[in-house]
Design goal:
Elements: E1 4-9, H1 13-16, H2 20-34, E2 38-45, H3 46-51, E3 65-68, H4 72-82, E4 96-99, E5 111-116, H5 124-128, H6 134-150, E6 153-156, H7 159-168, E7 176-178, H8 195-201, E8 209-213, H9 222-235, E9 240-244, H10 251-256, E10 262-266, H11 270-279, E11 282-285, H12 294-301, E12 306-309, H13 314-318, E13 323-325, H14 330-342, H15 344-359, H16 363-377
Parallel strand pairs: 1-2, 1-4, 2-3, 4-5, 5-6, 6-7, 8-9, 8-11, 9-10, 11-12, 12-13
């Protein structure tokens, strides 16, 4: 029987305090860890390992780690500039090196697999409303040039991301493999926290608030949210707006200045996010750009209907299970939300469609596809 030795270069913070990408990493790594054909070791910085001591949950507190002494960012720069030391220096028997998020580890004999969620640096200003610094732009350009010449397989999470990469690096096309992001199983299960307790903590009423995941920033379409929310409130005066996730400076204050119906909660733990998704009347995801859009599926898995933007990878992920509007149409978003929240038949229909759609991305199904991809390149 073939044994696959996978060395995965990870940022441990993504497993200690998982957000969307961290939950995806957790799902895929867990699956490889439990497969009889795979042996997995995590390549991490000593600094990160010490910083997360006591905060890692099973099985990561007992995982097999190999470490490097340099700061993670300095080590990444060293690998990119010098292509040294190779992965085999850390584990001589590895035959696959997996970088789960836009990074690079040089190899001698092992096959190199890199996951790319999106490629934003060429259009950064249009997506984020601000420019990358010259140093950051140089870093991203150089990273993708190195990946173009070095990877054995590039794992991308959507056809949209694949097309974006191929348009700039056509030589990569034969090496691209599309496996979508999985939805963590916790979103299909009942909440582990008391729903009423979470509602009291934030002065919310179940089924009477609209939820925005991912925080407030230009890419997540904060300007449209600010313009559309008064239109929604005019039609549904008792509806509240709740935002969770990291927000860029200034947007929180602008949205909260509209009236007292707005609550911007910031970062929340996974078990509380599960409660918020399930207790919301609807989830609103008007993002301008997504390489995938995992919050759409997380909301659907909780049985909550979704209104989102018809752009980038979101239509591919949502299928026919969400109401999709143009990302610049504030009136259209407002009208769609009012209709969804006011018509029980429409609300129930999209909740049902969402559950069916999310089930296609359950962790076990997607992780099996990912495992098959790893096998195919080893």
């Amino acid at each position: 029987m073939t044994r696959f030795n996978v060395l995965s270069y990870v940022q441990l913070a993504q497993l200690a305090n998982p957000t969307g990408v961290g939950r995806v990493l957790d799902c895929l790594l867990r699956h490889l860890q439990t497969s009889a054909d795979f042996s997995v070791r995590l390549l991490v910085s000593e600094k990160d390992l010490h910083a997360t001591a006591g905060r890692l949950l099973p099985p990561w507190e007992a995982a097999q780690y190999v470490t490097f002494r340099w700061d993670r960012r300095l080590q990444q720069a060293r690998w990119l500039a010098c292509h040294f030391p190779p992965a085999e220096r850390y584990w001589s028997q590895c035959n696959v090196v997996w970088c789960p998020a836009e990074s690079y580890v040089p190899t001698k004999r092992a096959r190199l697999l890199v996951t790319v969620h999106d490629i934003v640096y060429p259009d950064y200003f249009a997506i984020h409303g601000r420019r990358l610094s010259p140093v950051q732009l140089l870093k991203w350009r150089y990273l993708f040039r190195v990946l173009n010449s070095s990877v054995d397989a590039l794992h991308v999470v959507s056809q949209f991301t694949a097309d974006s990469i191929i348009s700039r690096f056509p030589d990569m096309a034969p090496r691209i493999r599309i496996v979508p992001n999985p939805v963590h199983e916790q979103f299909f299960l009942p909440p582990t926290l008391c729903i009423d307790e979470v509602m009291r903590r934030h002065a919310l009423r179940r089924g009477e608030f609209l939820l925005i995941p991912g925080g407030l920033c230009y890419r997540k379409n904060a300007p449209l949210i600010i313009n559309a929310w008064p239109l929604i409130r005019e039609k549904i005066p008792d509806l509240q707006l709740v935002v969770f996730g990291q927000s860029e400076p200034g947007w929180k204050e602008k949205l909260e200045a509209i009236d007292s119906s707005v609550k911007v909660l910031g970062y929340r733990a996974d078990n509380e996010i599960r409660v918020l998704y399930g207790a919301a009347l609807a989830v609103w995801f008007p993002s301008r750009y997504e390489g995938f859009g995992i919050p759409v599926l997380e909301a659907m898995a909780c049985g909550t209907p979704v209104v989102a933007s018809k752009t980038t990878a979101v239509p591919e992920v949502a299928g026919q299970a969400a109401i999709l509007m143009q990302p610049h149409d504030a009136c259209g978003h407002a009208e769609a939300i009012v209709e969804l929240c006011s018509k029980a038949s429409l609300h129930n229909d999209y909740a049902r469609r969402g559950l069916q759609r999310a089930a296609e991305f359950r962790a076990d199904r997607v992780a099996t596809k990912f495992e098959e991809m790893v096998r195919s390149i080893a």
